[in-house]
Amino acid sequence: MKILSPYLLFLGDTKDPLSVKTSRGIAQWRPERTVGQISMPGCEVTLNLPELDFETAVQMGAKTFILGLANAGGVISEDWLPYLRQALENGMDIASGLHNKVADIPEIKQLADRLGRHIFDVRHPTQTLSVGNGKKRSGKRILAVGTDCSVGKMYTTLALEQEMKARGLNADFRATGQTGILIDGRGISVDAVVADFISGAVEALAPDNSEDHWDIIEGQGSLFHPSYAGVSLGLLHGAQADVLILCHEVGRKHIRGLPHQPLPHMQACINANLGGARLTNKQAMLGGIALNSSALNEQEARDYCQKMSDTYQVPCVDPLRHGTKTIVDFILSQRG
Amino acid sequence: MKILSPYLLFLGDTKDPLSVKTSRGIAQWRPERTVGQISMPGCEVTLNLPELDFETAVQMGAKTFILGLANAGGVISEDWLPYLRQALENGMDIASGLHNKVADIPEIKQLADRLGRHIFDVRHPTQTLSVGNGKKRSGKRILAVGTDCSVGKMYTTLALEQEMKARGLNADFRATGQTGILIDGRGISVDAVVADFISGAVEALAPDNSEDHWDIIEGQGSLFHPSYAGVSLGLLHGAQADVLILCHEVGRKHIRGLPHQPLPHMQACINANLGGARLTNKQAMLGGIALNSSALNEQEARDYCQKMSDTYQVPCVDPLRHGTKTIVDFILSQRG
């Protein structure tokens, strides 16, 4: 499955800048995959891309209409339906990261079928998967793991891919969640597969490759999140990672969504992830720590990273502030 | 969801005694839930239950026709369809533990719908689940964990339930796989739920209960099985167990189905499971070791259990040979 680009990014009548973070991610990380944005009257958000109508977008080559926005409950608004219809009628596929499936709207599904267009509901995997087997695969792999959900694992892996590609390395981001899939046009929502197939899904996502190739696999959740740790462990086993990058948000008070659940200690989190990783790759090592340090000022962030680096003996950066150069240097020095 | 009993157990034209292990489990653990068996011509297997025709079974009160047998690939044989039709026409529901769904056979589904009968495909959960939250629940819980798949977790939990009920304790087996569900008439196949909902499924399966109540939760897989460990970790977090029982088969050479994958050391397996369990229950303890010692003779088995008990300082038994009395004594002395 590959979602064809370039994209036309749909912003709806959004008022909340946070609700278009998927489309913003596409514009940031894959600007070459988009021709512009399209908004409804009343929209108060922009990605600073050209505002296009359907005809112009198609003339510019648009292949897929992207619902990279959140709505209350992941619901598809009735008001969006004329836009979905026009996208199909203008020859585009539709790809959506919403909980509710576009393909479950009968009139849209029937129109897509009649016109021979595809609908990608990327939260709902359709691949036929096998159970994982843990057999050694060729090529090298990096996996982002976390102290919690939403601590910057996707950002970190995309930043690592950018840094490695800029050095001419043979590297590919591997998306495991809906935002990453829409950004890259491919991937598997591992938290949405049947539980028996978690590790198998990741084995399929990052298969045998050339010995100089790096898969940079987006992590999900945390081994210490009581809602989602099963996904995180299956992902860890399936990734067969040579290198783990531990992601953490400075100042987070408790596990996301669960005020009664404390965050793990960094060392416990490192130990648990390395222990799990070594079931399928005995050489697994910690390659760096990536922080979301937005709670700190510049100097505090540098001091904090230095302290973490001294404690855990790996590079520590905020990828947004400092880039990932020191982490890539360290990975290459150890496993390059 | 509760599968109504008593059952009529269908043996098909089976030649292989192992292929009816689900029905044998029902006959062994819930004899009060079955009126008898029904075989096709050529069947070479028996459960030593009364061989009934449909009319007699119905007169004896049979409510559900059970497909508790395995076929190559989990497929439903064409030859079985007349039996399925007769079961429905005689007023029974159908419950199946096969991979392929009975409800996917149009003529059977239509007949069931027309007659108002239920079809339970227990490998395919239909409950609406919530994600887990790890909040403390009332009541007490025991969970079987394992060094591998198929090491006796279901047998151990059913034997513990039997022993505890015989003492007048308030205890319930909680099934997490298809065989256990058919035996007990209720439960959730946790390896078949969407990955995000593993721990939530187990929270729903073993909810708040009275303080003197014991949930005895069937485990699945192993934290050290590269195919299924995600399921095992989600189950461990969702169970919020006070007491873990470690199950192991003496003499197993490698992880089931994966000759390249070694078994974990017992101590590593205990540590990993206690570490995981304590995320949602800080008081989690090891309450015993349950071995499948069929590779040993009687004296060897006793010696082996004694050695394990001395090493890990908990009772160690083969539940089939020795019962679970010493484990229940120990659990009650520690957490009763």
Please characterize this protein's 3D structure.
2 copies of one chain form a homodimer. By secondary structure, chain A is an alpha/beta fold. Chain A folds into 2 domains: 7-121, NAD(P)-binding Rossmann-like Domain (Rossmann fold, 3-Layer(aba) Sandwich), CATH 3.40.50; 140-335, Rossmann fold (3-Layer(aba) Sandwich). Helices cover 35% and strands 17% of the residues of chain A. Chain A contains 12 helices and 11 strands. The first copy, chain A, has helices at residues 21-29, 54-59, 81-89, 106-115, 153-166, 178-184, 198-205, 229-239, 266-277, 298-312, 319-322, 325-335; strands at residues 7-12, 34-39, 64-67, 93-96, 119-121, 140-146, 170-174, 213-217, 243-249, 285-292, 316-317. In chain A, the strands form 2 sheets. In chain A, strands 7-8-6-9-10-11 form a 6-stranded parallel beta sheet, sandwiched between helices. In chain A, strand 1, helix 1 (21-29) and strand 2 (34-39) form a beta-alpha-beta unit. In chain A, helix 1 (21-29) packs parallel to helix 6, helix 3 packs parallel to helix 4 and helix 7 packs across helix 8 (229-239). The A-B interface holds A 131-136, 190-200, 223-224, 226-235, 237-238, 257-258, 260-261, 272, 275-276, 279-280 and B 131-136, 190-200, 223-224, 226-235, 237-238, 257-258, 260-261, 272, 275-276, 279-280.
The oligomeric status of these chains comes to homodimer
Overall CATH architecture of the largest domain in chain A: 3-Layer(aba) Sandwich
Structural class determined from secondary elements of chain A: alpha/beta
What number of structural domains do the residues of chain A give?
Answer: 2
User: Are there runs of chain A of 5+ residues with pLDDT below 50, and where?
Assistant: none
Side-by-side strand order of the widest sheet of chain A:
7-8-6-9-10-11
Largest sheet of chain A, described in full? 6 strands, parallel
Element pattern of chain A in H and E: EHEHEHEHEEHEHHEHEHEHEHH
